[in-house]
Description:
- The chain has one helix at residues 3-30, and strands at residues 49-52, 70-76, 82-92, 96-103, 118-124, 130-133, 138-143, 149-152, 159-169, 178-186.
- By secondary structure, the chain is mostly beta strands.
- It folds into two domains: 3-40; 49-186, Sandwich (Jelly Rolls), CATH 2.60.120.
- The longest helix has 28 residues, at 3-30.
- The chain starts with a helix and ends with a strand.
Amino acid sequence: MSERSVWTFIKDFFRATWDRLTNAQRVQETFPDSYDQSQDAKKIETVFFTIRSDKDVDFDNVDLDTDGELDDADLTGLSSNKIRIKAVRCQCDVLFSFDVLLWSKDTKNTADPDTDSQKGIIRFLTADGFRCETGTSDQYRYESGPIDIPYEDLDGTFELHCSICWRGGADKLSTDEFILEVDYEPAS
Length: 188
């Protein structure tokens, strides 16, 4: 075999290999992983959960009338101890400004900053509340909009430790009617 035929063979082999690689690349661009049924494990599906307070059990001391006064609740039933909070909704019987504070432990607000467990604050102003009158229901509703707060229950009790903090508006909640609803997704 001559030297020229060896080089011709190598060039032909390289061209054929190159063509196969580029064809494979074109096919991969046309049919990405998400279209291949065997690649379902690569698809990420987001699942949202909701935890809701009970007006007769949680926030049972809502006669708030002093700026900065807190009322605490531990909402049970989280699907995971590590979550990402995506939205917060509230409904109550009077229009007022308040903050929703999130804590990572049931000790919540402590005098020692080293043991305090604050994870986030969602602020609701009086202007954020809107009224729904349906004849039987005369309540104010608040919506946070989309948020993303990482939260971890360090007690390991699958609870959302939270407080509402009065900031002004009505003198106090006239009846014990305050509902907090939190949308979340599990975090890894």
